[in-house]
Design a protein that fits this description.
114 residues; 3 helices; three-stranded antiparallel sheet; three-stranded parallel sheet
């Protein structure tokens, strides 16, 4: 693809991830389109707006709501995906903002997703 050529991404494929108050307006717009918004901080302005909140030092944790919302994967399929990459997913429930622990199968838990 050349540098000047625009990419066409359908609005139903949008997932917006933000961490601060500068993300509020985009999150509101993406929510209006009924797409996924994920807060990656406890910022008081975006956590009430975002459909999901994930607190983690590992970017892989953002995949959980993406696999659920965009791809329609169920808990079993998501667990199998992470396990195939050497990661254990624990505590994943029906609550969209519940606690999830993602850890290496060879180490103690080090990622918490809320």
């Amino acid at each position: 693809m050349s540098c000047g050529r625009a990419m066409r991404i359908r609005h139903d494929s949008v997932v917006y991830v933000g961490d601060g108050s500068s993300d509020v307006h985009v999150m509101l717009h993406v929510n209006r389109l009924r797409r996924s918004t994920i807060a990656v901080s406890e910022n008081k302005y975006i956590t009430p707006i975002a459909k999901r909140t994930i607190l983690s030092d590992d970017a892989c944790s953002v995949l959980v709501p993406i696999l659920e919302d965009l791809f329609g994967w169920n808990t079993s399929k998501i667990r199998a995906f992470f396990e195939s990459h050497g990661l254990a997913l624990q505590g994943m429930g029906q609550d969209s903002n519940g606690s999830i622990t993602l850890c290496s199968t060879a180490a103690a838990p080090d990622i918490v997703v809320n």
